[in-house]
Design brief:
Radius of gyration: 13 Å
CATH architecture: 2-Layer Sandwich
Shape: globular
Structural class: alpha+beta
Largest sheet: 5 strands, mixed
Number of strands: 5
Helix content: 25-40%
Strand order of the largest sheet: 1-5-4-3-2
CATH topology: YaeB-like fold
Distance between the termini: 19 Å
Number of helices: 2
CATH superfamily: RelE-like
């Protein structure tokens, strides 16, 4: 199964990588890898993670306060947000297809 990003989710990921890289060199890379692992877990077991709204589920990112919000589509996993857990929980809802 494959995955694709909503454009705003991809921008969120890139912004967070830059943020962590500015804090400490290499931390952005570590963050990116942890997000990738969360995505791979969702791809491998798409129904294993809790539903948070409709058909959108959340796979938590290890070591960082983020979650990968996704829906399972015919073509694969569609990532609607790379969400900081401290942000308002509904900010991404306009992205649902």
């Amino acid at each position: 199964m494959s995955f694709a990003f909503h454009p705003e989710a991809e921008a969120e990921l890139n912004e967070a990588i830059e943020y962590y890289e500015d804090i400490e060199p290499g931390l952005g890379y570590d963050f990116a890898m942890e997000v990738y692992y969360a995505i791979q877990r969702a791809v491998s077991l798409p129904k294993a993670w809790p539903v948070i709204d409709g058909d959108v589920r959340r796979s938590l990112v290890s070591r960082f306060p983020y979650g990968v919000l996704y829906s399972e589509e015919y073509e694969g996993i569609y990532i609607v947000a790379v969400m900081p857990l401290h942000r308002h929980p509904d900010y991404w809802k306009h992205r649902k297809q």
